[in-house]
């Protein structure tokens, strides 16, 4: 059943218009017709069954019908602090992290990040990533939308990161996820960009309480490391 995100108050037995992008996708891409059933969610939990009421040239009106108290969130609250990678690599990482149940996303600018973003470019890229996260929630049936925070230089973010368990990936680390106890609260994982962390960045992370974690004997790419860790954490401590 097609799913659409509407960041507004929704109520049973009301008529509403889909946002322009959703209307275009429903009418022109999916080619839905009057009477077709869809699902709506606003990111605050639960979802609504609705049906197409009217299709115009540039608008689609839907009838909101029944609210369902459905939650598909993992009990494992993980924040991904991801060193900014280039183009499709970053998009892929964030999209799949949402599918794996990530709770929040913090893009961090690292010394070896290929892409350098600031000002309007940074704001536009963050908005692009947030829209990508929304689309991933529509696809994966999540009813709560993870927040993509503003891009922050890694040293500044390290000084602010205050959670019980903080993990950083390192090929030569002593610990693996299997050697850690089940976390009692939130977890933050820190993944580097294409070239990895500079020595000073890695030392700064350790100085602020990050625990080095080894993800097997192989070196993983930037778009793979966080996803492999998320999958393993969900198996060990989550809902896989």
Q: Tell me roughly what share of residues is in helical segments.
A: 25-40%
**Strand pairing plus helix content: what structural class?**
alpha/beta
- Structurally, the number of domains stands at 2
Largest sheet: 7 strands, parallel
Q: In percent terms, what proportion of residues is strand?
A: 15-25%
Low-confidence residue ranges: none
Terminal Cα span: 23 Å
Task: Describe this structure as you would to a colleague.
The mean pLDDT is 93. It contains six helices and twelve strands. It has helices at 20-29, 87-99, 119-140, 154-160, 199-207, 222-237, and strands at 3-5, 14-17, 37-41, 47-55, 60-68, 78-83, 104-109, 147-148, 152-153, 165-169, 187-191, 211-213. It has two domains: 3-68, Ribosomal Protein L25, Chain P, CATH 2.40.240.20; 78-237, Alpha/beta knot, CATH 3.40.1280.10.
Summary?
It is built from six helices and twelve strands.
Write the layout of secondary structure elements.
Blueprint: E1 3-5, E2 14-17, H1 20-29, E3 37-41, E4 47-55, E5 60-68, E6 78-83, H2 87-99, E7 104-109, H3 119-140, E8 147-148, E9 152-153, H4 154-160, E10 165-169, E11 187-191, H5 199-207, E12 211-213, H6 222-237
Parallel strand pairs: 1-3, 6-7, 6-11, 7-8, 7-9, 10-11, 10-12
Antiparallel strand pairs: 2-5, 3-4, 4-5
Helix pairs in contact: 2-3, 2-6
